[in-house]
């Protein structure tokens, strides 16, 4: 039940404004092997965490490059998962390594969406020729959507589906970004991470129950919070990504260690986008 909130504010913007403010949670089985965010060993222009599950190695849920390519993925909640299909994490990794722009890439992905379990994919380009952000949901429209400037929320249904927890989190997120130009970058990151660790259930939510059916009945209340916390499964990673008007990127990841909800590591990266 991953969840993402973001504000897209493409150029031209003042140097004190942000072109992107994004906060995301990765929810997963605690024991699923993965690497925390870092620049790739074989490509030091790409920053992301990495899935290390057997057969899915090298996939990722969220990443960014020094060239300004960004992508993030959520699964689409469905009652039954097909274990024979392709791993969805490759959809993000492939975009980060490709030369295609975000819309063209999602256009290609839309033709092959049936080869995966349900997913949502955000892809973006932040560069000197202009910023663009696009969305494709494999259970939604056939064509990718070019996003207008604004505030968005995405969980494990289609973009801005009004699940109660998504609406609740989107309001908290919007309240913080209203003051984003008046607080330090460090304070903005910490306030966003606090939002992403809100465990207050927005329950009941019959839309989640209907979409997930029997698959989630045993932990429906836990699923109805921004931060999911249940035995063996829940929020493992908080990520905040900021891109300011001058192309400065701040990438902060807070990730669980040793399958233990009491142990966390925070990593921070800053770099400038290539012109």
UniProtKB/TrEMBL annotation:
Signal peptide: none annotated. GO terms for biological process: Golgi organization; protein secretion. InterPro entries: TANGO2. It holds the Pfam family TANGO2. GO terms for cellular component: Golgi apparatus. PANTHER family: SER/THR-RICH PROTEIN T10 IN DGCR REGION, TRANSPORT AND GOLGI ORGANIZATION PROTEIN 2 HOMOLOG. This is Transport and Golgi organization protein 2 homolog.
